[in-house]
Amino acid sequence: MKPKVSIIGAGMTGATAAHWLADKEIADIVLVDIVEGMPQGKALDMQESMPVAGKDVRIIGTNGYEDTAGSDVIVITAGLPRKPGMSRDDLLAINSEIVAKATEETIKLSPDAIYIILTNPLDVMCYVAMKKGNLPRERVIGQAGILDSARMRAFVSMELDVSVENVNCYVLGGHGDSMVPLTRHSNVAGIPLNEILSKDRLDAIVERTRKGGGEIVGLLKTGSAYYAPAAAIAQMVEAILKDKHLIVPSSVYLQGEYGQRDIFFGVPAQLGRTGLEKVYEYDLNEEEMAELKASAEHVAETMRDLSI
Ligand code: APR
Q: What average pLDDT does range 172-186 have in this prediction?
């Protein structure tokens, strides 16, 4: 029997993640959404593409939770985007309720599942899932850092016209404007970025990375990025199911690492079959530490607004 991955929220990111995952042929997939017929329609359409893709994967769409039973990984992308007139607190209250319910419903049926969270505000929604599911920190991982780092990698690769495979970038911290692109630890085939790019070009790439989500929203006008976030989900799921011990920037619950405690925060995390295996700590200079601290304060502030 194949492993099973359930994706709660079959919107743009959830459905695209299902697509990337189906193409990897590593798990059967269940898509859950509250919109009637939508997850069923997307799942059936995707299922009908499998003969062409040559992949033996079962994809089910549903409005209930029963079919998620026995999942190895649960991905939560369910949530509302911030709409005009909606305050940050309104969004926090609505999405925390959605994530709480999704976790409570799924954990009953998949008591051993590992959770990957996407819903924003990301770092705080991870905390909601951990608390509501009564989960150990190893089993709740937020997706943000792979996406932010992938954006930076894409910009460097386009700038230098080199393969994306040669570009290693690490973006840590909270998911949002206060993220911390670590230029000193990022490189092209081992050559530090500041040796291969002028200061101006590097600064521009860092700035574009920080505003990467907004750039896509500005272009799309309605909706936000989903291809890259979904690809990041697929990479995390694969790392877990294949027990790869893959080190990727992810939002995990810190207990003293990087001088932080009791918040979810983007750090280099090793992922394998049990979920979070290890947090890696960089030797950071004063400036980098100060940026991370400011970013952590940002997450802590949103945590204080949370009432669960
Ligand atoms: N249960 C299941 N699905 C839900 C629920 C719920 N209680 N509430 C909302 N949803 C579904 C919506 O019906 C929608 O199909 O979640 C889906 C979200 O999809 P999109 O609106 O297309 O959003 P998407 O671009 O996929 O972003 C997903 O990622 O970046 C974060 O904050 C962002 O929460 C958003 C998430």
A: 92
> Quick check: is 175 catalytic?
yes
Q: Which CATH class is domain 4-142?
A: alpha beta
8, 31, 34: which to mutate for ligand 1, most atoms within 8 A of CB? 34
279 pLDDT band (50/70/90 cuts)? very high
Q: Could you identify the atom of ligand 1 that is nearest to the CA of residue 15?
A: 26
> What is the number of the ligand 1 atom nearest to the C-alpha of 38?
15
pTM: 0.97
At what angle are helices 286-305 and 88-109 packed, to 10 degrees?
80
pLDDT in tens, 193-233: 999 999 999 999 999 999 999 999 999 988 899 999 999 99
CATH topology of domain 145-304: L-2-Hydroxyisocaproate Dehydrogenase; Chain A, domain 2 (3.90.110)
pLDDT tens figures, 48-76: 999 999 999 999 999 999 999 999 999 99
Measure the CA–CA gap between 132 and 161, rounded to whole angstroms: 46
C-beta of 78 in contact with ligand 1 (< 6 A): yes
